[in-house]
């Protein structure tokens, strides 16, 4: 049996430290915005090399509060990739602005920067590239377009904790970087959590107010805020796990290399292209095949769990039917939705488990 993701073996390796960190918060009783939150924010900034880190309730909130802090709202448009988790688009919609989708590159699955210019209108305010699967989007041309057209770039780094582009950490490349600590992410809490990284003092200040009822000091509310604070218990857990992130990402990279060596040239399998000058941290290990559903079923019968990220592209989701996008609008994202299969990937995967996956794949293709 090979699970797609198994969080238990990781907990076993850090149980003592994590349990101790949790019990300290419980015994102090400082459950909301305790010192563990600012300690973790600072530690996370050392990972990304940014000046500020603002812990919030989820990755979706990191994105939507950043947009709100930049005063993006009704009448505005924000460019997002068609191939992403729906949260990227939901963040835009939640502000009242309109998500405008752009197709992705067939080789890397990330936003195709050559298609961004034609999606820009007089209403466009921002671009949200997503570092999908843990591989950085090609940021230099995106930043250049944004600069030329006076747009803000917000990174959706929810799958990219510790990934880097030209030796610069994801989350430090745009005006702000948005992270999720959903349990299955490379850095995962024991529940929901998120964080925004930025070098912009003013933006950081606004985000700190927005996440905490819009208050400047207690009972003095200067903007219409929300309640979306990173939990102290989650921050304490994350601070322990952050110390292991590099090691865990290295393990993922080793597993990916092992998959790549064993699956290159098998059947009609296509592997994700690796962008130059980037460090991919393999939140997901994705392969493509025309016979995706049959292969998934075969693997399932051999006790191997896989995932599909994502079966319905965002522009074709029922929730977005009012935007008027049609099938055929973003052919690359639509094709990937039919051909992509995510193989088991988590740091504690064993050699034997990976061997079982690759031999089952090879067996099905008769090679
Ligand atoms: C997980 C994820 C989000 C949302 O994060 P949550 O913490 O679940 O709200 C946003 N964008 C991408 C690309 C994600 O993978």
What are the key terms here?
367 residues, 7-stranded mixed beta sheet, 11 helices, 15 strands, 38% helix, 3-stranded antiparallel beta sheet, binds pyridoxal-5'-phosphate, alpha/beta, globular
Can you walk through the features of this model?
- With 367 residues, the chain is α/β, with parallel strands linked by helices.
- The two termini are 22 Å apart.
- A hairpin with a 2-residue loop joins strand 10 (215-217) and strand 11 (220-221).
- The strands form four sheets. It has a seven-stranded mixed beta sheet, with helices on both faces. It has a three-stranded antiparallel beta sheet with strand order 7-6-13, with no helix packed on it. Strands 12-14-15 form a three-stranded antiparallel beta sheet.
- The protein contains eleven helices and 15 strands.
- The longest helix has 21 residues, at 8-28.
- 38% of the residues lie in helices and 15% in strands.
- It is globular and about 70 Å long.
- The mean pLDDT is 98.
- The protein has helices at 8-28, 35-48, 59-69, 87-94, 139-149, 201-211, 232-242, 245-263, 292-301, 331-339, 351-365, and strands at 52-56, 77-81, 98-102, 124-127, 152-156, 164-165, 168-169, 176-180, 194-198, 215-217, 220-221, 270-271, 278-279, 285-288, 340-343.
- The site of pyridoxal-5'-phosphate (PLP) has 15 residues, from helix 3 and helix 4.
């Amino acid at each position: 049996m090979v699970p797609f993701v198994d969080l238990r073996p990781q907990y076993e390796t850090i149980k003592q430290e994590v349990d101790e960190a949790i019990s300290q918060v419980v015994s102090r009783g400082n459950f909301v915005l305790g010192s563990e939150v600012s300690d973790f924010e600072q530690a996370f900034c050392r990972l990304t090399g940014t000046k500020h880190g603002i812990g919030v309730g989820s990755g979706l909130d990191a994105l939507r509060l950043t947009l709100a802090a930049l005063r993006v709202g009704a009448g505005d448009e924000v460019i997002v990739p068609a191939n992403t988790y729906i949260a990227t688009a939901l963040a835009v919609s939640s502000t009242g602005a309109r998500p405008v989708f752009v197709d992705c590159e067939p080789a890397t699955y990330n936003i195709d920067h050559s298609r961004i210019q034609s999606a820009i209108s007089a209403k466009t305010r921002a671009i949200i590239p997503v570092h999908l699967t843990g591989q950085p989007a090609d940021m230099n041309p995106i930043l250049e377009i944004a600069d030329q057209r006076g747009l803000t770039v917000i990174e959706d780094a929810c799958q990219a904790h510790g990934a880097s582009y030209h030796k610069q950490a994801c989350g430090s490349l745009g005006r702000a970087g948005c992270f999720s600590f959903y349990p299955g992410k490379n850095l995962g809490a024991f529940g929901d959590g998120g964080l925004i990284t930025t070098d912009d003092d003013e933006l950081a200040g606004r985000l700190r107010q927005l996440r905490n009822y819009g208050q400047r000091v207690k009972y003095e509310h200067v903007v219409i805020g929300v309640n979306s604070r990173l939990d102290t218990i989650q921050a304490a857990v994350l601070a322990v796990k952050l110390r292991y992130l590099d090691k865990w990402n290295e393990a993922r990279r080793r597993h990916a290399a092992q998959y790549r060596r064993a699956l290159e040239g098998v059947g009609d399998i296509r592997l994700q292209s690796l962008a130059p000058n980037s460090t991919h941290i393999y939140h997901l290990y994705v392969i493509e095949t025309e016979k995706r559903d049959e292969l998934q079923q075969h693997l399932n019968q051999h006790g191997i769990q896989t995932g599909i990220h994502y079966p319905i592209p965002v522009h074709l989701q029922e929730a977005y039917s009012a935007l008027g996008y049609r099938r055929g609008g973003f052919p690359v994202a639509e094709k990937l939705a039919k051909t992509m299969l995510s193989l088991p990937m988590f740091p504690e995967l064993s050699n034997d488990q990976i061997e079982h996956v690759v031999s089952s794949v090879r067996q099905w293709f008769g090679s």
